[in-house]
TrEMBL record:
GO terms for molecular function: proton-transporting ATPase activity, rotational mechanism. Gene3D superfamilies: ATPase, V1 complex, subunit F (3.40.50.10580). The keyword DNA-binding does not apply. This is V-type ATP synthase subunit F. Belongs to the V-ATPase F subunit family. Keywords: Ion transport, Transport. It comes from Enterococcus ratti. It holds the Pfam family ATP-synt_F. Coiled coil: none annotated.
Length: 64
């Protein structure tokens, strides 16, 4: 998907846990943005932590 220039890629947290190197490779790139979402079994909290880090980096403090 990244090679086909998708702008946003949604991936479940359990799936992201299986490919941390790939997720890390795209972390500092503008495109694609990889958003971690909970699976049907619930959340692992990884997606929310990543969003908090991004917001804190952009704003300068954690507003969530």
């Amino acid at each position: 998907m990244a090679k086909k220039e998708y702008g946003v890629i949604y991936i479940t947290e359990p799936c992201a846990n299986q490919i941390p190197e790939t997720i890390a490779r795209y972390k500092n790139q503008l495109i694609p943005t990889i958003i971690l979402i909970p699976s049907h079994q619930g959340t692992l909290g990884i997606g929310l932590k990543e969003i908090q880090k991004s917001v804190e980096k952009a704003v300068g403090q954690n507003i969530l």
